[in-house]
Amino acid sequence: MKTIIVGNGSDLKILNESYNSAFAANSSISRISSLKCTKSLVLSESLLWDKEKLSSVRDIYSENPIDSKRSLQIRLEKQKALKGSVVNNLVILSNESDINYVKRLEDLKINYDNLKILSHLGRIKIIIKVIGLLNLFMYFLKKDISILIKFFLSILKVYLGGKMPLDLRASTGLICIFYALSKKENNIEISGIGNNSGNHSFYNSIYVENKSLHAIDQDFLKILRNKFSLTFIN
Questions:
Q1: Residue ranges of the domains in the chain?
Q2: Is 134 strand, coil or helix?
Q3: CB under 8 Å to 29, separation ≥6 — which residues?
Q4: Is 230 exposed, middle or buried (CB count within 10 Å of its CB: 0-12, 13-18, 19+)?
Q5: Where are the beta strands (DSSP E) in 26-148?
Q6: Fold of 3-233
Q7: pLDDT tens digits for 15-67?
Q8: pLDDT digit string (tens) for 183-210?
Q9: CA distance 228 to 42
């Protein structure tokens, strides 16, 4: 069995037909459109927003700021890439917003066999299932005690109904990897997420780089690389 996981850190189409299953984060589903294997799409809830809600997004402040106008353009490009997608499994990363998922999926003509909604708590549970609570504790204990305290207090906050802060929140691409690993997928190749993408993304003609967003990704990747056999490709 051979698995490919893709993100938007590369815009190269995956043409290798030897994969038994494929996982895509957000609009990178277009990269695996020609594959005939079982496909899973992990999708951020924000990509289901209608144009009115998308127009209300705020500027993104980081080392490479993105103003609201450009943010809207990027999100519309993502939605354009998603339209007409056909997948076996669809996972939506929920932020508990008031969105009619089924209707918005119909509007975007996204076709799926199985639908799963992952809340902030659901994501934390998958991360703990894949990595192990002790491994998480030991990693951050060795790295920085202040980060350890902040991370585990944030987990407690999520269990009490809150949300993970953005700097400690895994990106959709990383959740895509965690989701695949939680399904016991093996012989995994990864393209356009994390180590080989450097937290940058392609959205058709738009290129975005912001290393400080989802900065926790690199920590999760270090843990995953130590525990699993993962192959990163272009």
A1: 3-233
A2: helix
A3: 39, 41, 81, 82, 85, 87
A4: middle
A5: 38-44, 86-93, 111-118
A6: sialyltransferase cstii, chain A (3.90.1480)
A7: 888 999 999 999 999 999 999 999 999 999 989 988 777 777 665 555 566 66
A8: 988 889 999 997 544 444 444 444 445 4
A9: 21
Neighbours of 225 (CB within 10 A): 13
Count CB-CB contacts under 10 A for residue 146: 9
Place of tokens 């918005």: 104
Q: Is 234 exposed, middle or buried (0-12, 13-18, 19+ CB in 10 A)?
A: exposed
pTM: 0.88
**Which residue in 60, 7, 67, 8 sits closest to 202, CA to CA?**
8
Q: Can you read off the two tokens belonging to residue 212?
A: 């400080």
CA distance 83 to 76: 11
Q: Which residue in 201, 225, 204 sits closest to 214, CA to CA?
A: 201
Of 230, 229, 187, 232, residue with least CA distance to 2? 187
Six token digits for residue 171: 């990106």
**Three-class DSSP category at 4:** strand
